[in-house]
């Protein structure tokens, strides 16, 4: 970042002038208190850390992991805290014995008040030990940072949800709204059963809610580790994988032929790699860059202002594109993520395939994206088809005063002076299943990461200990604020 502004940015649209919002802000401060965030020395945090450690060290990759075991272990913690059997249960989709999840409930006092749902996936992407500096499935703390696969995406938030239920029980907390918990499997795997989708199709009453809170935009740190802003997901991209496939009769490798399946696939991927989808400004990114321009200032801030004014300003786009997160917010993106080819080292390949992962801007479609890829490749020998599950287009979350107000109020307590910025999440979450099922879903984690995004899905995934400490406090207060509305 060039520079950042530490002044608190409050309000959504004209909320700063809203009397109702003022009353909401004041009542929330009174209800949740203005105490400092917890510290790692807090005995409650020590218990939470053990919960997170157990969840991290329970491998939940699709290849060799076991989400059902992780769900059972988290359920055992809730039962040990005093929750009755009827309020805590593990669910296992038929035919998927290791892809189970956990459901729990804390009944509210008002049967007419819609529930609040704490939603998190507990599966993680694959990680090869030989590639990592540290064991990806050991919970490691080093120099004020936690390292492990899933520590940012998203086992920390899942552990916070489990710990919140324990805290509620210890405190004798009785919310007005029922609070539900759902830990699911399959979000990270395009070919596995998705627990959130399964619940909406088979056990919707168990997760029905007036508001769900799950992963979304995270907080941003500058290069020096200072908090720049707290992100809130207002919209997210559609997820779609495409399989590129080339088949060939093959033959003996001592007699090469020009028509080689691997070469044709490589040429196709090369054409995709050199293409940038058109830049589009949508409501979520307009609001995001309008606020961020005032926060970052300098050349970047000026470029954001110019871009919002003229979305075709090439110079402004070039400046914004220097940041990979902002680059992804501006356009649909497609990138090769997996390749498989050949059947023997001494034979010409009979088949070559690649997975191309696309993140599609709202307002665009998978079919339209496939048409662009087909035109780019321009080779009938390369068969391009959708692969695995796809996102369903959803409406952006309505960030009304009742939704955004609690976030800003509690952020002012836990992250003083840090502005709240709604925007577009380039990734995707289980909101693609809960929103169509009639559950408004808010994406906010309360965790902060630097420009590398905690290297989630990459090597040595990490999150700062202090970020976890403060994020835990932020999320628990936020749930209470919504549950007491």
Please tell me about this protein's structure.
The chain has 485 residues and is α+β, with helices and mostly antiparallel strands. It is globular and about 75 Å long. Mean pLDDT is 89; it is low at 1-36. Helices cover 36% and strands 22% of the residues. The protein has helices at 19-32, 43-56, 67-80, 155-171, 195-202, 204-207, 261-273, 283-296, 298-309, 314-320, 324-330, 366-377, 401-414, 431-434, 465-483, and strands at residues 88-91, 101-106, 116-121, 140-142, 145-147, 179-184, 211-221, 227-236, 238-247, 251-252, 333-341, 347-348, 351-360, 383-387, 420-425, 441-449, 462-464. It is built from 15 helices and 17 strands. The strands form four sheets. Strands 1, 2, 3, 6, 7, 8, 15 and 16 form an eight-stranded mixed β-sheet that branches. Strands 11-13-9-14 form a four-stranded antiparallel β-sheet, with helices on one face. It has a three-stranded antiparallel β-sheet with strand order 4-5-17. It has two domains: 15-234 and 396-483, Zn peptidases (Aminopeptidase, 3-Layer(aba) Sandwich); 238-387, Alpha-Beta Plaits (2-Layer Sandwich).
Any descriptors?
Alpha-Beta Plaits, alpha+beta, 15 helices, Aminopeptidase, 485 residues, 2 domains, eight-stranded mixed β-sheet
SSE layout and pairing:
Layout: H1 19-32, H2 43-56, H3 67-80, E1 88-91, E2 101-106, E3 116-121, E4 140-142, E5 145-147, H4 155-171, E6 179-184, H5 195-202, H6 204-207, E7 211-221, E8 227-236, E9 238-247, E10 251-252, H7 261-273, H8 283-296, H9 298-309, H10 314-320, H11 324-330, E11 333-341, E12 347-348, E13 351-360, H12 366-377, E14 383-387, H13 401-414, E15 420-425, H14 431-434, E16 441-449, E17 462-464, H15 465-483
Parallel strand pairs: 3-6, 3-7, 7-16, 8-15
Antiparallel strand pairs: 1-2, 2-6, 4-5, 5-17, 7-8, 9-13, 9-14, 10-12, 11-13
Helix pairs in contact: 1-13, 2-4, 3-4, 4-15, 8-9, 9-10, 13-15
């Amino acid at each position: 970042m060039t520079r950042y502004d530490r002044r608190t940015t409050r309000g959504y649209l004209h909320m700063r002038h809203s009397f109702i919002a003022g009353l909401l802000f004041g009542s929330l401060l009174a209800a949740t208190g203005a105490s400092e965030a917890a510290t790692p020395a807090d005995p409650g945090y020590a218990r939470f850390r053990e919960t997170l450690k157990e969840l991290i060290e329970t491998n939940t990759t699709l290849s060799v992991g076991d989400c059902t075991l992780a769900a059972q272990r988290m359920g055992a913690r809730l039962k040990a805290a005093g929750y009755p059997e009827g309020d805590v249960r593990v669910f296992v989709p038929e035919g998927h014995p290791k892809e189970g999840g956990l459901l729990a409930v804390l009944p509210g006092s008002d049967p007419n008040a819609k529930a609040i749902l704490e939603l998190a996936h507990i599966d993680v992407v694959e990680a090869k030990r030989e590639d990592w500096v540290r064991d990806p499935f050991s919970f490691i703390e080093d120099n004020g940072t936690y390292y492990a696969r899933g520590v940012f995406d998203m086992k920390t938030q899942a552990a916070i949800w489990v710990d919140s239920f324990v805290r509620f029980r210890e405190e004798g907390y009785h919310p007005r709204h029922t609070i539900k918990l759902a830990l699911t499997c399959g979000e990270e795997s395009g070919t596995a059963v998705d627990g959130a989708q399964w619940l909406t199709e088979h056990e919707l009453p168990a997760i029905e809610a007036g508001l769900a809170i799950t992963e979304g935009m995270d907080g941003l740190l500058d290069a020096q580790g200072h908090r720049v802003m707290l992100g809130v997901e207002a919209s997210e991209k559609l997820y779609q994988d495409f399989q590129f496939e080339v088949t060939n009769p093959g033959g003996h490798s001592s007699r090469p032929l020009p028509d080689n399946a691997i070469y044709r696939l490589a040429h196709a991927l090369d054409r995709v790699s050199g293409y940038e989808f058109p830049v589009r400004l949508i409501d979520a990114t307009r609001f995001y860059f309008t606020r961020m321009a005032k926060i970052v200032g300098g050349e970047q801030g000026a470029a954001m202002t110019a871009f919002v004014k003229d979305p075709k300003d090439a110079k402004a786009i070039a400046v914004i594109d220097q940041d990979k997160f902002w680059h992804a917010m501006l356009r649909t993106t497609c990138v090769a993520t997996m390749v498989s080819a050949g059947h023997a080292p001494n034979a010409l390949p009979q088949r070559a395939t690649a997975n191309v992962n696309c993140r599609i801007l709202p307002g665009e479609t998978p079919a339209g994206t496939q048409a662009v890829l087909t035109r780019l490749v321009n080779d009938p020998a390369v068969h391009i088809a959708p692969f695995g599950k796809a996102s369903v287009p959803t409406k952006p979350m309505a960030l009304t005063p009742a939704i955004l107000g609690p976030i800003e109020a509690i952020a002012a307590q836990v992250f003083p002076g840090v502005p709240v910025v709604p925007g577009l999440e380039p990734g995707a979450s289980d909101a693609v299943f809960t929103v169509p099922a009639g559950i408004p879903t808010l994406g906010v984690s309360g965790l902060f990461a630097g420009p590398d995004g905690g290297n989630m899905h990459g090597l040595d995934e990490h999150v700062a200990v202090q970020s976890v400490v403060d994020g835990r406090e932020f999320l628990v207060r936020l749930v209470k604020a919504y549950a007491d509305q």
